[in-house]
Design a protein that fits this description.
Oligomer: single chain
Strand order of the largest sheet: 1-2-4-3
Number of strands: 13
Structural class: alpha/beta
Helix content: 40-55%
Strand content: 5-15%
CATH architecture of the largest domain: Orthogonal Bundle
Length: 589
RNA sequence: GCGCCCGUAGCUCAACCGGAUAGAGCACCGGCCUUCUAAGCCGGGGGUUGCAGAUUCAAGUUCUGCCGGGCGCGCCA
């Protein structure tokens, strides 16, 4: 496959052009013209907000400076720009040429793989996401991290970066000692080769809860559990064998959920906590060499001056517990080292619940001072909010009302099936089921992806399973409408080409299509998938308005072909955008 | 007690590192299917952006102090 050329998106092009004009006019190198999409249609297509700040700096009249900038822009005769004008206190409003927009769009139509340009510099990016605890079955709280991470991985990959997914599953902590101890207890004479373990684990959640109850109520059992961890981490065969069967069973559950969710994770992306086990003593050595370790109450700790807790006391990062077992900080340090020096990552993203932000701050800081991370690697904790219950209180995973992720997906598809059957009773059942499966999953994913990841969110069936308004079905519906039209055209177009713009709705839709690369760039930089959702929703909305206002198949020949092309371009944009969200499209719905 | 995050329409959320009159959806009210899929489109009501200051041409956005909510803070992950 030919790698599409790096290409400036509209905003980058205008930003560079106006930036250089502003720099020249102001006599200040690298001035930022601060070009953004226009906040209102009256202001044109894009607007430059940077003139006023520079004028302030120069103690000069902003409108006069803007005038100089405008003259410089005019002298360049840029192919994209129809005209620029000064507005208000010193804004520069930018209007783009229709012919330039049409030409750009027609080019993209002929080479759809240029719709999303390659990043100028491809780098290696590790994306750590999903990372469920294998002691339990995946529940609704795992949804966010899994699909946000998957979206980011897809976006970065699409830009040409080398993306290495890392599913850092929890398979090695204290809870496994607990499970093993409980299993041994439940099955008096453990014989891991021939028992009915899979049957007993058919409901991992139930098994976990039972073990947990024992652990919390019986200190002797808790002690046995902790000793089991040490034995496991020490490599005792019997423990390893039981453990392995837990893991295999649990991973099977996870993969079912991933496949159902259309999440790209597979076995090859697994890098479990246990993978780092052999390297943990090396972490201790490395920290020792840097004189960072302190023995505190029997535990090996790192104290960094920038982290203090209660009463200003130094806050420890516990590297090794007093009983000799390691904790997740140590594992995470080993993972940082692995990603930096073995995978040679330039960026390492951790898509993990915001509650762990202090933990990651500490791990990153220790990794830097201990040389477990190079200075060049960008370590980024991509946080997301805590899931709350209907009452606004945190959704307790240990309480009985945990909802399994698979149950949510089943319910979504069930409701979607009812709706499809209602809307489209003529389709046979298999077709309706297939549509419902796509729509249901899409709705659940989009409900989460479309919200700013940093805010806490309330688990709410009705919001998550809604099919109207700003939802995935709206986008899928727009796509299906386009496909329906395209399938009705009598003669296939030799090649799509957008050659005329008559209505406001046509132009709005055309320009919006061309702005996908800008959005992708923002998502890749800041890791906010909701920006892509917002964009696609606006794109679909502009298509709906175009659809209502502009007849396509009944239009005059030239307009007809042009509108068909515009519709085809929109389908392409929607399809590629939804694909980056991990949402499949439908030809019919 | 200390630290981090959050507070925007009745509800769920936007607002592109400080920009022009704060926008959508849901819900509610009213229009639009003999015309390319009504899971749609058009219109309407609804706001002192928690409160009070500060910074400046410009603050939902930055700073300070309160109020309210969430999370984290030594051997769970």
């Amino acid at each position: 496959m030919i790698r599409p050329e790096p290409m400036q998106n509209l905003k980058q092009h205008l930003g560079a052009l106006l930036g250089s004009c502003l720099s020249k006019a102001a006599g200040i190198a690298n001035s930022n013209a601060n070009v953004i999409t226009a906040s209102k249609p009256e202001f044109g297509d894009y607007q430059a907000n940077g003139v006023m700040a520079i004028a302030k700096q120069l103690q000069t009249n902003p409108r006069e400076l803007a005038q100089k900038v405008v003259e410089l822009i005019d002298s360049v005769n840029d192919k994209l720009i129809e005209r620029v004008e000064i507005a208000g206190p010193g804004f520069i409003n930018i209007h783009l040429r229709n012919d330039a927009l049409m030409a750009k769009a027609s080019m993209v139509l002929q080479q759809p793989n240029t719709l999303i340009p390659q990043s100028e510099q491809a780098v290696c990016i590790v994306v750590d996401y999903s990372s469920p605890n294998l002691a339990k079955e995946m529940h609704v709280g795992h949804l966010r991290g899994t699909i946000i991470g998957d979206c980011l991985a897809r976006v970065l990959e699409k830009q040409g970066h080398e993306v290495i997914r890392q599913n850092h599953v929890g398979d090695w902590g204290t809870q496994f000692g607990m499970l093993i101890a409980y299993l041994k207890e439940v099955m008096k004479a453990p014989d891991p080769g021939s028992d009915d373990l899979p049957t007993r684990l058919a409901d991992l959640e139930v098994f976990y809860r039972a073990a947990r109850k024992r652990f919390d109520s019986d200190s002797e059992f808790a002690e046995t559990s902790r000793l089991s961890v040490v034995k496991l981490q020490g490599g005792e065969p019997e423990y390893l064998q039981i453990w392995q069967r837990f893991i295999d069973e649990s991973l099977r559950h996870c993969q079912l959920v991933y496949d159902r969710l259309n999440v790209t994770l597979s076995n090859k992306d697994l890098k479990a906590e246990s993978f780092y086990n052999d390297g943990l003593s090396g972490i201790v050595t490395a920290l020792e060499e840097k004189n960072l370790l302190t023995l505190s109450a029997g535990a090996l700790c790192v104290f960094l001056p920038e982290f203090t807790g209660k009463d200003g006391d130094p806050l420890p990062v516990i590297i090794r517990k007093s009983d000799g077992a390691y904790l997740y900080a140590t594992t995470d340090l080993a993972a940082v080292r692995y990603r930096c020096f073995d995978l040679n990552a330039d960026r390492s993203l951790y898509v993990v619940d915001a509650r762990q932000s202090l933990h990651f701050q500490q791990v990153f800081a220790v990794a830097r001072v201990a040389g477990l991370a190079s200075d060049n690697i960008s370590l980024e904790h991509v946080t997301y909010g805590t899931m709350m219950g209907k009452d606004g209180k945190p959704f307790q995973t240990r309480s009985g009302d945990t909802i399994k992720l698979i149950e949510l997906l089943n319910e979504a598809c069930r409701r979607a099936f009812e709706l499809v059957s209602d809307k489209n009773p003529d389709l046979d059942e298999a077709a309706r089921q297939a549509i419902a499966d796509t729509v249901g999953i899409a709705a659940v994913k989009y409900a989460d992806l479309s919200k700013n990841r940093t805010s806490d969110y309330i688990f709410d069936w009705s919001a998550m399973l809604s099919f109207e308004g700003n939802t995935a079905p709206y986008l899928l519906y727009a796509y299906a409408r386009i496909k329906s039209i395209l399938s009705k055209q009598e003669t296939a177009l030799e090649q799509y080409s957008i050659t005329s713009i008559d209505a406001r709705e046509e132009r709005d839709l055309l320009l919006k299509n061309l702005q996908l690369p800008e959005v992708i760039e923002m998502v890749a930089t800041d890791c906010y998938p909701n920006l892509l959702c917002n964009y696609l929703y606006e794109l679909a909305g502009k298509f709906m308005r175009f659809y209502e206002a502009c007849p396509i198949l009944k239009a005059e020949l030239e307009s007809r072909n042009s509108r068909l092309s515009l519709a085809a371009l929109t389908a392409e944009t929607l399809q590629q955008g939804l694909d980056l969200l991990g949402i499949e499209t439908l030809e019919k719905m």
